[in-house]
Write a structure and sequence with these properties.
Length: 394
């Protein structure tokens, strides 16, 4: 990891352009480039990388980066790659041995990608796997992007409604406030509650983690009480998967609230597993025409029967929004937050004297998110999934 000739070594950090169609976010801003350069890194940004977020090559250059247009050469020369989306398979073979690659990786499902990182002797860091501790919050991209996504879900609901969210008293009559039901009150759900409240809606929410009730109420929402028996949460604050019987109890208890809602926003996820189906076809049928459902889990399997990933569909007059990658709808803010998460991760284990990112696999953060290192899969859970009994894969 640490090059032999340390005295003359300047670590090259490469920011590639994101290639996924429609992806407008990027992993650095001029602000974070400035800070990375200040640490002593040599930052190279691929030409056009910031276009989707409104950042020009000149902006990056003014911040101290150099601009490169030969993508293969950039990847091949990188000591560290900071990007957002997982790489294409053929890009892994372009990376040099010992390179550190930081991005989303979807490591529970991307077996071949993880194996390729290991056999290329690249250290792969997964942004999904940043541990959930107080100290690592500033690096937590799942949370930073979920926050924006929760806001955007309400914007999409508002845009698709035939009515408005707030109560309005006018000489032409009184408009009732919209009734919004939010299923899942984690990072995205809480932001959705706050946003819908700010727009004047009447908000009800439910989550299987009972600790959340107080947070929902502190935002002005009403918490729907459902007795599911033992639910709890993992040490990382994630929901545990419900039994089929518990899912059924939840469905029945929510049915009347859903039928009475103008908007339902579903954010219910169970980390590393398929999300539960909580709004069934008959519940959609039970909603009034003009109602809107935003299924924030559509891309990963869906909380709503009938939702289509990345599409807006109409089922008997009910609009079901399955738009994916909601944070990407605010690319400037999403980029600012993601880039800041990346910088905080780099800075955390940057050795000021050696002027490089020193991989400290003994610290409290990296062992949780380093998936491959030294030619092997080193993350125990991922290793177990890929080389072991596959029990997490669905
Ligand atoms: P997530 O995206 O995995 O899930 C979203 C929400 O869906 C969660 O609140 C979950 O409890 C809920 N859910 C799952 N199954 C459900 C069901 N059947 N019905 C209703 N809701 C269901 O989780 P998230 O939003 O990323 O985070 C969850 C929590 O983790 C946060 O609220 C927070 O307490 C904690 N957290 C801690 C840190 C930290 O300490 N650094 C960072 C981020 C989040």
């Amino acid at each position: 990891m640490i090059p032999e000739n340390q005295a003359n070594f300047t670590m090259q950090l490469v920011i590639p352009r994101e290639t996924q169609p429609g992806e407008n976010r990027v992993s650095a801003t001029p602000e974070t480039v400035k800070k990375l350069v200040r640490l002593g890194a040599d930052v190279v940004v691929e030409s056009g990388a910031g276009a989707g977020a409104g950042i020009s090559d000149a902006d990056y250059e003014a911040a101290g980066a150099s601009i490169g247009s030969d993508r293969s050469a950039l990847l091949g020369s990188a000591d560290m790659v900071l990007r957002l989306r997982k790489p294409e398979m053929d890009e892994i073979s372009q990376l040099k041995a010992g390179c550190i690659h930081v991005s989303y990786l979807d490591p529970f499902n991307e077996k071949d990608l993880i194996k390729a990182f290991a056999s290329q002797n690249v250290t792969a860091v997964s942004m999904e796997m940043i541990p959930r501790s107080t100290r690592s919050q500033k690096m937590d991209a799942l949370s930073s992007q979920a926050n924006l996504a929760g806001y955007m879900a309400v914007m999409l609901a508002a845009n698709n409604m035939p009515s408005i969210m707030p109560m309005m008293m006018t000489p032409a009559g009184t408009l009732k406030p919209a009734k919004v039901f939010i299923i899942g009150a984690g990072v995205a759900g809480l932001q959705a509650i706050a946003t819908a409240k700010r727009l004047g809606a009447r908000v009800t929410a439910f989550d299987t983690r009972p600790v959340v009730a107080e947070q929902v109420e502190s935002l002005g929402g009403k918490f729907l009480e459902i007795d599911l028996g033992d639910t709890g949460q993992t040490a990382d604050g994630y929901a545990k998967e419900l039994t089929p019987e518990q899912v059924e109890i939840q469905r029945q208890a929510q049915k009347a609230v859903i039928a009475d809602s103008d908007v339902v926003i579903t954010t219910a996820q169970v980390f590393g597993r398929k999300p539960p189906v909580l709004v069934t076809a008959d519940m959609v049928e039970g909603m009034s025409p003009g109602s809107v459902i935003v299924d924030m889990a559509a891309e990963t399997g869906g909380n709503v029967e009938g939702s289509v990933p990345d599409e807006v569909v109409n089922v008997n007059g009910v609009t079901i929004v399955g738009t994916a990658n909601l944070a990407n709808l605010a690319p400037r803010d999403a980029t600012q937050m993601y880039a800041s998460n990346m910088f905080n991760l780099v800075e955390d284990t940057w050795d000021e004297e050696a002027k490089q990112f020193v991989l400290d696999l003994e610290n409290d953060i990296l062992p949780g998110c380093v998936i491959t290192h030294g030619g092997a899969i080193v993350h125990p859970t991922i290793k177990d999934i890929i080389e072991g009994d596959n029990r997490y894969v669905q």
